[in-house]
Each structure stands twice: as structure tokens, then as C-alpha cells.
Design brief:
5-stranded antiparallel sheet; 4-stranded antiparallel sheet; elongated
């Protein structure tokens, strides 16, 4: 009997989600409107930091210095340009001192110092025409941003004989936050219409094409409301908004494509709309559920890291994945019941067809089955060749250098980037870029002097300033010989921490923050990797009932990411294509980015893997023919996966047009990973490997097979184990 006539197809979950379809859609509209209201202004409450480990020594020392010595770590700089005159000219000095005095009187500003007050050579440019006024803006990120907005415009620009530009870490973060919000709006303007055009090309029907967009919009707006609520209890990074948009559209397209495609197939067999929805939910719906769980698991691994930058992506990612899946499994079936055969209405491609009824565009018309056949006939060649190419593309990652996010994330024209570049190029030191050593506990002047001499003798040290003493606390500023966060500076952090002292010492500064961040990630990375692998293995086993397929899925998915990691280093670290893509290479990769990109890309790869494996499993359960199941699975899903990957890549490329380098790296890197996975791994490597493993692919020991029979799910639905499944297990066990 055809499965569309199976009674369970219109029972259970189907009855629940389709009982009152109009009421369901009306309720969804009301909830969406409420989400818009709840999520309004979310971007203004998000932070632009979060790369540091909150429990690290450097974080403790930074907070202690802010409390005891607020001027020790300036985060706000005024670059004073005297033009043709010398910075020491009387008129220039008088105006600069007036500006410094005025800045010292601003609410929320402490620790004002300047070249004209201290005479410090590091605050004066080597050409003698520029010098710095440094200060610290107090408060949390939101308060610092508000203070910056209030005071910056009154200092920026011409003041008598000098011209002033505004910079410093506070200005960098604030400008980064503003640019990200602007770029996200532009990305959405680009991605939405292009996605709609591509969906029309895939479906033909304009009605069917609008359904995934509706699901995506619901998921994005709902996630914004979730993030807005989270900002009341924890820090959330503004970068997470980009992931919300990308995954909201991308996964909504994936899930809706899969469900609508299966629904149209069932209609084509003569099934009534309600029965077709039931069969769709019992097959494709279960696959969507498994897919959402695998993506959510991969993203949830970022919750194990202490940096709120990574945790923010977990918050946004899990929310948008679950909302996209919920909308696809609740709202979309209700819409399909109401639309029925009208889901094929407004066929915009009919003008290009000579005649005949429309067909589902993602089936591939046998081309994907022929591709699978070719690959499987030459399986060793394709398996080894594809693997070699992927490994070769990933080799540049062996030379990765980790660094911190700084002003070079911004476009070269950004004011705060210009200020910091002037400091890097023209000043004899790096104000604010040294390493601070906090000393706590009773000590004599002689003990401070002896300690200063010990650290001055370290080979990577250029100069030691201080100590500045306040009660039982003091701090030293150590200037490394090289860049503020290069390898020698990081090594110097370890040497400073190992230097003995008669008092307690804590080390902070950009290099120390980087060292602690790397240590925190390295400590949690094995746990996060094990979490992703173990849960993914379990989920894929529940889907397939095979012991080998989950292992294949994890290994091949990881292999599909090699090109992304190689490209990240070759392009963004080494600077190739920087002119074409419009960014400034800092010569390193921000420490948290590889973790983020792995979790996102691995989850999306599993998303496509589940689509393919579920259809192969369904066919194998029905026929017991391994090779035919692989060909059938690729034929049924090859076009679907490719279309979904192209659409998601378009969304990610739109995100990648951002002027902030980390966002550009995330968008373009994920786009490359998605395309490589869909077009190379799913099309070539998976069928080749499955041909090599043969029928043994489906083997599982008796206890695990019985466990799967009881708890497993697949597109074939529940019920007793098919006879062909029992027979092929016996064959696989013998061979």
C-alpha cells in the first residue's frame, strides 16, 4: 500500500498542527508582532567585546587597576595634530592643555594625562607634529558608549592651531558596533530579494517560494526578542545579530525546501492535501527535527567556553535553529493544508517550458543519480582524490597565528582606525599597548626597585615604567621590544608571571588577555569537541541504525571544513585578496573565530548530511539494495541540498560584505564551507566512501540494532522492522 494512504499519516502530530490552520497562522502573526515589539532596540543593548576570559588573571588585574589606578589603562585618546608647527610650540601646548583640562572635567572621564603634562616620549610622534591626550572613560560598555556619544563631537575637529581626532579602545568598540548594525541592514536588503529570486528558480511557484521567507522572518524576529531578554541577565555580543540573520534565513530555506518539496511529491501521487501533509511530517518532518537537533548541538558547544563572544553565538544560534524548526513543523503544515494544490500557483517559469505539467525542480531529473553511479564505479579514485584536494586546501591553517581583535577590524577610513594607525606608524611606543603588572601587598621602595630591575633584565623588555604606588598596591608598565601582542610579547607575559616578588603580582594588558584567552579555549576545546562528536554520533545512529555511518558523517563533515580554515589563514591572516575584499590584515586570526566557524560550519554540514542520509536510509529499508539506495538518495536530495547551499551561501556572502573584518571572515568562510560540503563532499566523497564500505555500512550489533528499533527515527517512520532490514543485517554481518 502506498504510504500516503497509511492511517497514521493524518493522526498524531499532523492532527495537532492542522486541526485549526487559520487559527494557527493568526496566532503566529500575533506572536510575531509581539516579538517585533519585544526585540526592538536589541542592537543598542549588545556589546562589541567579549573576547576575554572573565575568570582569568588578566581580567582580575584589569578590574583592580580600573578601581585603584583609573588612569593606568587609557581607553580614550585624542590625537592632536599641530600641522606644520611643532607639538611643543607655545600656542599648540596652550590649546592642548586647555583641551586636557576640559576633558578632565567631563562626567565619566578619569585619569587624564597628556604629552604636555607628563613629557612622556611615547605620547609624542617621532616627527614632532602629533601628540596624545589619554584618558579613561568609566562604566560598562553601554555607559562608556553613552559617554563617548556625549563628548566626542565637542573635541573632534579644529581647535585653534590644532586638529583633533578621536580614538582609543572605547571608540573602536563603539564604531565597530555602529558599523555592524549598518552593515547588517544592508546585508538583509541584499539577501532577502536575492533569496526570493533563487527560491522562485528552485520552486517555479512564487507561492511556494514565499513560504521559506516567511519561516525565516518569524525565526529572525523571534530570536531578536530572545536576545533582547537575555541582555537583561547577561552580556550578549553584537556580532550575534549576523548569525541570527544568516541562520534564520538559511535554515528556514533548508527546512521549508525539504518539507515543501516532499509535500509536492505527495500531491503529485494523487494524495489529498491533508494526507500529503501527514506523510510529509512523518518523513521529511522527522528529518528536519533531527537536522535541527544536530545543528543546535554543534552550536551549544560554544556554551562551554567562558568568553561571552562565543556564548552569544550559542544563544542566538540555538534560538534561531529551534524557532526555524518549530515554524517549519507547525506553521508551514498549517499553510500547506490551506494552500493545497495552490502551492504550485503563480508558476513563473511556465514561459520557459514548451508544455507539460510542472515538476519538482530539486529532483535532478536523474542527473544526480548518474553522478552517484559514476562516482561509485570509480570510488577509490574519487575518495582518495577528493580527500587529497581537501587536505591540500587546508594546509595554510598549519601556519595560523592567533591575535586579538583591534582597530584593524574596521575599514581604513574609520576614525578610530586612523588614530591607532598613526600611533603604530609614527609613535616610538604603543600607548595603552604595554603590559601592566599589578603588585598587591605591603612592600618597601627598595623591594619595588629590586623587582623592577629583575623584570627590566628580561630579554623581551624594552623599558619598565613605574611603580605608581597607592597604599599597599602599585603597578608597573612594561613595554615589550616588539608588537604589543606578538609571540615575544606573549612569551614575556609568562616570564613576568614566573618572576619572583615579595608581594602578589598579576599581569594584564593586551598580550596577557590574549594568552589567557588562548589558555581558556585550549582548556575547553577537548570537552567541546567531545560533546559535539558524541551527541552527533548518537543522533545519526538514531536516524540510521548504523554504527559506521555516524563515524563517516563526523569524519567527512570535519574534512569538509578544511578549505574554509585554509582560506581564512591564506586570505585574512596573510592578506591575500585584501585589496579586492577591502580589509586590513592584522597578520593574525582572532582567537575565538576558528571555534565559532567550526561550530557553525560543522552544524550546517550535518544539516545537509542528515537530509542525504535520511533519504538513503528510507530507500535502503524499502529495497535492501545498497548501491541503488545511494543513487536514489542523491537523486532525490542532490538538487535540494545544492539549492539550499547556494541560497545559504548567498546570505553568508551578503553578511560577508561587512566592513568589519571578523564579520567578513565569518560570512565568506561559512559560505565557502557550505558550498564545499554540498558540491564536493555530498556529491563526490559521500557516495564514494559508501560504495567502498558497501552493505557493511548498515551493520550494527544486535543490542544496538534492537535499541534503534525501539527508539530510532527515520524518514520511513516507525513500526516494525522491515523484513529487508533484518535480511541485510544478516548479510552485512557475514560479509
Amino acid at each position: 500500500m502506498n504510504e500516503v494512504n497509511d492511517p497514521p499519516a493524518v493522526g498524531g502530530w499532523t492532527r495537532f498542527v492542522t486541526a485549526r490552520p487559520r487559527l494557527s497562522l493568526l496566532a503566529a502573526l500575533v506572536v510575531t508582532v509581539l516579538a517585533v515589539l519585544a526585540g526592538s532596540g536589541v542592537a543598542d543593548r549588545l556589546g562589541a567585546g567579549g573576547w576575554e576570559d572573565p575568570g582569568a588573571e588578566s581580567t582580575y588585574a584589569t578590574k583592580a587597576l580600573e578601581r585603584e589606578f583609573p588612569g593606568s589603562q587609557p581607553n580614550f585618546l585624542l590625537l592632536v595634530d599641530s600641522g606644520a608647527a611643532s607639538a611643543d610650540a607655545p600656542a599648540v601646548a596652550a590649546e592642548a592643555e586647555r583641551l586636557a583640562g576640559r576633558l578632565a572635567g567631563e562626567r565619566g572621564v578619569v585619569g587624564v594625562s597628556s604629552y604636555w603634562q607628563s613629557g612622556a616620549p611615547t605620547l609624542r610622534a617621532k616627527d614632532g607634529h602629533e601628540a596624545l591626550i589619554a584618558a579613561r572613560i568609566t562604566g560598562d560598555e553601554k555607559e562608556m558608549g553613552e559617554t563617548l556619544d556625549r563628548i566626542a563631537s565637542s573635541y573632534r575637529g579644529a581647535h585653534g592651531p590644532v586638529d583633533v581626532t578621536v580614538g582609543g579602545p572605547v571608540a573602536v568598540r563603539h564604531e565597530m558596533q555602529t558599523i555592524i548594525q549598518e552593515d547588517l541592514t544592508r546585508a538583509e536588503i541584499i539577501a532577502l530579494p536575492v533569496t526570493l529570486v533563487l527560491l522562485v528558480m528552485v520552486f517555479g511557484s512564487a507561492v511556494a517560494a514565499l513560504l521559506p521567507l516567511g519561516i525565516g522572518i518569524v525565526a529572525i524576529l523571534g530570536t531578536n526578542a530572545v536576545l533582547r531578554g537575555l541582555t537583561e541577565v547577561t552580556d550578549v555580543s553584537v556580532f550575534a545579530l549576523n548569525l541570527t540573520t544568516a541562520l534564520g534565513l538559511g535554515l528556514a530555506v533548508d527546512y521549508a525546501l525539504f518539507i515543501v518539496r516532499r509535500f509536492r511529491e505527495e500531491l503529485a501521487t494523487g494524495a489529498e492535501p491533508l494526507t500529503a501533509v501527514g506523510t510529509t511530517l512523518r518523513t521529511a518532518g522527522r528529518t528536519v527535527l533531527f537536522s535541527a537537533l544536530t545543528v543546535a548541538v554543534s552550536l551549544a558547544a560554544m556554551l562551554l567556553f567562558p568568553q561571552y563572544f562565543l556564548r552569544s553565538f550559542a544563544y542566538a544560534g540555538i534560538a534561531v535553529v529551534l524557532l526555524a524548526a518549530a515554524a517549519a513543523l507547525i506553521l508551514l503544515p498549517a499553510a500547506l493544508v490551506l494552500l493545497g494544490h495552490r502551492v504550485n500557483s503563480l508558476d513563473l517559469r511556465r514561459v520557459f517550458r514548451r508544455g507539460g505539467p510542472p515538476r519538482v525542480a530539486t529532483e535532478g531529473s536523474g542527473a544526480w543519480a548518474r553522478t552517484a553511479g559514476l562516482v561509485m564505479r570509480r570510488a577509490p579514485f574519487f575518495a582518495l582524490g577528493t580527500t587529497a584536494v581537501l587536505v591540500l586546501l587546508g594546509l595554510p591553517f598549519l601556519g595560523v597565528k592567533f591575535g586579538t581583535a583591534d582597530d584593524r577590524q574596521l575599514p581604513s577610513s574609520a576614525e578610530s582606525h586612523v588614530v591607532q594607525q598613526h600611533i603604530r606608524d609614527g609613535f616610538p611606543g604603543s600607548p595603552g599597548g604595554g603590559i601592566e603588572v599589578l603588585a598587591q601587598g605591603p612592600a618597601t621602595r627598595a623591594q619595588y626597585t629590586a623587582y623592577k630591575e629583575r623584570i627590566a633584565d628580561l630579554p623581551e623588555v624594552r623599558r619598565v615604567d613605574g611603580p605608581l604606588v597607592k597604599g599597599d598596591s602599585a603597578y608597573f608598565t612594561v613595554l615589550p621590544k616588539g608588537e604589543a601582542v606578538d609571540d615575544p610579547a606573549q612569551h614575556l607575559v609568562g616570564e613576568l608571571r614566573a618572576t619572583s616578588a615579595p608581594f602578589d603580582t598579576e599581569v594584564t594588558g593586551a598580550a596577557a588577555v590574549l594568552v589567557d584567552s588562548k589558555d581558556a579555549i585550549g582548556e575547553q576545546l577537548p570537552l567541546a569537541g567531545a560533546f559535539i562528536v558524541i551527541v552527533t554520533l548518537l543522533l545519526v545512529f538514531l536516524l540510521t541504525g548504523s554504527v559506521l555511518i555516524p563515524v563517516q558523517a563526523v569524519v567527512l563533515n570535519a574534512l569538509s571544513l578544511t578549505a574554509m580554515f585554509g582560506a581564512v589563514v591564506w586570505i585574512f591572516q596573510d592578506g591575500h585578496l585584501s585589496g579586492l575584499l577591502g580589509f586590513t590584515s592584522p597578520g593574525s586570526i582572532e582567537t575565538t573565530l576558528p571555534v565559532l566557524m567550526f561550530c557553525v560550519a560543522f552544524g550546517l554540514s550535518m544539516d545537509y548530511g542528515v537530509f542525504l542520509l535520511s533519504r538513503i536510509k528510507e530507500e535502503y529499508d524499502e529495497t535492501g539494495d545498497h548501491d541503488q539506495a545511494v543513487r536514489h538518495g542523491l537523486q532525490r536530495t542532490g538538487g535540494l541540498i545544492t539549492a539550499a547551499a547556494v541560497i545559504l551561501a548567498v546570505v553568508m556572502v551578503a553578511i560577508g560584505t561587512s566592513r568589519v573584518t571578523n564579520t567578513k571572515m565569518l560570512g565568506l568562510g561559512i559560505a565557502l564551507a557550505v558550498l564545499m560540503d554540498a558540491m564536493i563532499v555530498r556529491s563526490l566523497l559521500v557516495p564514494a566512501v559508501m560504495r567502498l564500505t558497501g552493505r557493511a555500512t548498515w551493520w550494527a550489533p544486535g543490542p544496538l540494532r534492537r535499541f534503534h528499533q525501539r527508539f530510532g527515527l527515520s524518514e520511513g517512520g516507525g513500526g516494525p522492522e522491515p523484513a529487508v532490514t533484518r535480511d541485510r543485517d544478516k548479510v552485512a554481518a557475514r560479509g
